[in-house]
Write a structure and sequence with these properties.
Pathway: Amino-acid degradation; L-histidine degradation into L-glutamate; N-formimidoyl-L-glutamate from L-histidine: step 1/3. This protein is mainly α and 512 residues long. Helix content is 56%, strand content 5%. It has 20 helices and 9 strands. The radius of gyration is 26 Å and the shape is elongated.
Length: 512
């Protein structure tokens, strides 16, 4: 969607802006207001460079070396050396969308005029994004304090024309080669600029925004999956009535119950169960309590979105140029607020997957599935049906429980004990991305299984269910003898992750 343009100025970016640039390659432009703000603050920094008193990051070393005075003729080298030495990540390459979010959010902070960098530095960041150049960042290296130092340093190194990047075609090339091919002049850093480019929570924040975007689609898909499972199990829809949900007025719970009610509307299976003498007074918790669990996940995401909004409105740097013209040291780079939100989401995501797996398991057990064959097998004994699909779910759910262990409760001192308490927010972000991927897979398998159960019932499902199953059947055949199952699971996962499943449901009913 290259036609979309995101303006980066002195105000806050929106989450939609971040997603557009990170995932859809929207172009970025700096506003005239931001250029003026950066020019004004740069005058203040250059005045400090001439001061005989020490100023952190301008005329001193960094971290535990903050008491070391740097001669004027070495201060440009100081900034370049800082970037080169801090570009020390290791491990697997971080995803392109994460790095683009990282670069954009650092650009956003530069554009506030609170960091003291020259406008041309920010303009180069914008040009790198628009050229599709992606610095190569390793997964390990950030402690989330002083911000995401190593990941941001790799981005700064690329703007200097150094390090390794991927060009717009995804080829690994040197930073200098990529800039030259795009007609971008490398930046030669001056006083404070190296520090300003690496001192922020942009990596963990970018991943939080992307996670919220993913969950905005996954949660309604989990609601839909629950409704399909209720049909597959010939369950009841009476517990989802709005007046019952209103007795416990959590907004997320009400929203999830509404989705389930909408999906189950006009279900022949549910209506038939009532008409033929339905005797179960109440369904199992994994069915009956779906709005309570899914709704709690919704409300957790709402809290995380509140945190993300505050961070998007922040100017995180140290030292920072204040509105009244002071240059002050501060601790705003500490990632605790973001780290906590990321960890909270990992807990909620694990539970969302856990209840999904429990619903799937019920459909496979003839003692609890109310008339379905064992494991939904065509010929139980000869065929195993979806037996091992549930094993796959179970292995993922167990992994998600481990990933739910908070990273933000950990801390390890660095920089000769100057940085003696760190947030581990980057680690929280990395494990949340893995958790969301796992939860998408678990929900996809539930949909795959519930669709098979509904087909095997041979009774009319709801219009929404029918639309979802019809769309799924375009990529996965209906019930039959055992087939190679992994490709069908992969197709179901793509069906969920691409949001085609959600689109199919929304083509029939309003699930907002």
């Amino acid at each position: 969607m290259r036609s979309q343009v995101v303006e980066v100025g002195t105000g806050a970016l929106t989450p939609a802006d971040v997603v557009a640039v990170a995932r859809r390659d929207a172009r970025v432009v700096l506003t005239e207001e931001s250029i003026a703000a950066m020019s004004a603050s740069r005058v203040l920094v250059e005045a400090l460079a001439e001061d005989t008193r020490p100023h952190y990051g301008v005329s001193t070393g960094f971290g535990a070396l903050a008491s070391t005075s740097i001669p004027a003729d070495l201060r440009a080298q100081l900034q370049a050396s800082l970037v080169r030495s801090h570009a020390a990540s290791s491990g697997p390459e971080v995803e392109r969308e994460v790095v683009r979010a990282l670069v954009l959010l650092r650009l956003s902070t530069l554009a506030t005029g609170r960091t003291g960098v020259r406008p041309e530095v920010a303009q180069t960041y914008a040009e790198v994004l628009n050229a599709g150049i992606t610095p190569v960042v390793g997964e390990y290296g950030s402690l989330g304090c002083s911000g995401d130092l190593a990941p941001l340093a790799h981005c700064a190194l690329a703007v200097m024309g150094e390090g390794t990047v991927r060009d717009a075609e995804g080829r690994l090339v040197s930073g200098g080669e990529a800039l030259a091919a795009s007609g971008i002049t490398p930046v030669i850093l001056r006083e404070k600029e190296g520090l300003a480019l690496i001192n922020g929570t942009d990596g963990m924040l970018g991943q939080l925004v992307l996670a919220i975007d993913d969950l905005s689609a996954l949660i309604p898909m989990a609601d839909i999956a629950a409704a399909l499972s209720i049909e597959g199990l010939r369950g009841t829809d009476t517990v989802f009535a709005a007046d019952l949900q209103a007795l416990r007025p959590h907004p997320g719970q009400a929203a999830s119950a509404a989705v389930i009610r909408t999906v189950l509307a006009d279900s022949g299976i549910v209506a038939g169960a009532r008409a033929t003498g339905f005797v179960r007074v109440q369904d199992a918790y994994s069915l009956r309590c779906a709005p309570q669990v899914h709704g709690a996940v919704r409300d957790t995401v709402a809290h995380a979105a509140l945190v993300a909004g505050r961070e998007l409105a922040s100017a995180v740097d140290n030292p920072v140029v204040t509105l009244d013209g002071r240059v002050e040291s501060n601790g705003n780079f500490h990632g605790a607020p973001v780290g906590y939100a990321l960890d909270f989401l990992a807990i909620a995501v694990a539970d969302l997957a856990s209840i999904s797996e429990r619903r799937t398991d019920r459909m496979l057990d003839p003692a609890r599935s109310h008339g379905l064959p064992a494991f939904l097998a065509d010929d139980p004994g000869v065929d195993s049906g979806h037996m091992i699909a549930q094993y796959t779910q179970a292995s993922i759910v167990s992994e998600l429980k481990r990933l739910a262990t908070p990273a933000s409760v950990d801390s390890i001192p660095t920089s000769a004990m100057q940085e003696d308490h760190v947030s581990m927010g980057w680690s929280a972000a990395r494990k949340l991305r893995r958790a969301i991927d796992g939860a998408q897979r678990v929900v996809a398998i539930e949909i795959l299984t519930a669709a098979r159960a509904i087909d095997m019932r041979a009774e009319p499902s709801s219009p929404v269910s029918a639309a979802i199953i019809a769309a799924l059947r375009e990529v996965v055949p209906g019930p039959g003898t055992d087939r190679y199952l992994a490709p069908e699971i992969a197709a179901a996962v793509e069906f969920v992750q691409s949001r085609r499943a959600l689109d199919a449901a929304c083509s029939v009913a309003d699930l907002a």
